[in-house]
Automatic annotation (TrEMBL):
GO molecular function term, any single one: pyridoxal phosphate binding
Chief place of localization: cytoplasm
Record-linked HAMAP family: SerC_aminotrans_5 (MF_00160)
Pathway of action: Cofactor biosynthesis; pyridoxine 5'-phosphate biosynthesis; pyridoxine 5'-phosphate from D-erythrose 4-phosphate: step 3/5; Amino-acid biosynthesis; L-serine biosynthesis; L-serine from 3-phospho-D-glycerate: step 2/3
Protein name: Phosphoserine aminotransferase
GO biological process, one term: pyridoxine biosynthetic process
Residues annotated as binding L-glutamate: R41
Cofactor notes: Binds 1 pyridoxal phosphate per subunit.
Catalysis: reaction(s): 4-(phosphooxy)-L-threonine + 2-oxoglutarate = (R)-3-hydroxy-2-oxo-4-phosphooxybutanoate + L-glutamate; O-phospho-L-serine + 2-oxoglutarate = 3-phosphooxypyruvate + L-glutamate
Gene for this chain: serC
Cofactor or coenzyme needed: pyridoxal 5'-phosphate
Function: Catalyzes the reversible conversion of 3-phosphohydroxypyruvate to phosphoserine and of 3-hydroxy-2-oxo-4-phosphonooxybutanoate to phosphohydroxythreonine.
Assembly and interaction partners: Homodimer.
Amino acid sequence: MKKYNFNAGPSMLPREVIENTAKQILDFNGSGLSLMEISHRAKDFQPVVDEAVTLIKELLDIPEGYSVIFLGGGASLQFMQIPANFLIKKAAYLNTGTWAKKALKEAKLFGETVEVASSADANYSFIPKDYQIPADADYFHFTTNNTIYGTEIRKDPDSPVPLIADMSSDIMSRPVDVSKYTAIYAGAQKNMAMAGVTVIIVKDSELGKAPRPLPTMIDYRTHVEKGSMFNTPPVVPIYSLLETMRWVKAQGGVAEMDRRARERAEIVYGEIDRNKLFKGTAAVEDRSLMNLCFVMNEEYAELEKPFLDFATGRGMVGIKGHRSVGGFRASCYNAQTLEGVNALVQAMKDFEAEH
Ligand SMILES: *Cc1c(COP(=O)(O)O)cnc(C)c1O
């Protein structure tokens, strides 16, 4: 049976990315060696890193004065590495969910923090709008897409201070004005690559200002200066990242990714709102285009498990919601197809007809 991958992360990648990466794992550029066996310093691998950096800069229209680096440790390591490098006196954080809260927790280890707003009391079902960012903060940190709760900030917020964002689950799904940011980071396994690499975009002029000794590996300058080759980078994940960036470019870039995301979301949210069995969990104006969360309407609560089984029987994979929200989550990252969302919607319609 054909499977439709709605996993939240690691998640669906374009088929050709997987096939091309698989080929290089068997025989890297006709060298007779596997991508898994070559030195990261091999002359053939440097062009992989270089092209990946160039494509990221091109696709996100990154201005001069920014570096793109590839590290291990996931977005979770960035929760501490960001404040270690950029928190001088005070940092402002917006608490919109589990990941935002984790980022704030780590920042507290490095200095004064201000939680400008939180939607924790409403189980993070909306994005707070009325808040003041202190003008004397070093940066304003926010999570663009709340993977677990299905809310998203799809527009660079107005702020009196530079922005820093965790874009793990919606990077490359829309244009971004990078010039407003001191840093952008993303665990690549949602929208850019297989798991194992984190992409960090940093503004060079903001580096080296931290008033604390930084361990070599934590100082972004180490990795900027060595072109992500200070230590062994995750070679295979970086290769899959390159293939995904080539794919995004060939499809028409982030503007086209944005258009597709809107198209898919309209279809799925349209059905959630129409179907008598289901309702969305996030405030309508804050609905994520990447992670579409919905639950059974109260009177049909007992149909949750039966619908999960029904949809699974139709080939849907990974639609069970995160335990903190319950219900269902259809993750529709860049690689998600119209065929996939239409199959999900058809399953919702057919299940409704049976009940
Ligand atoms: C998945 C996710 C993370 C965690 O990423 P790791 O790479 O597993 O550390 C952080 N933030 C957001 C928004 C995520 O979606």
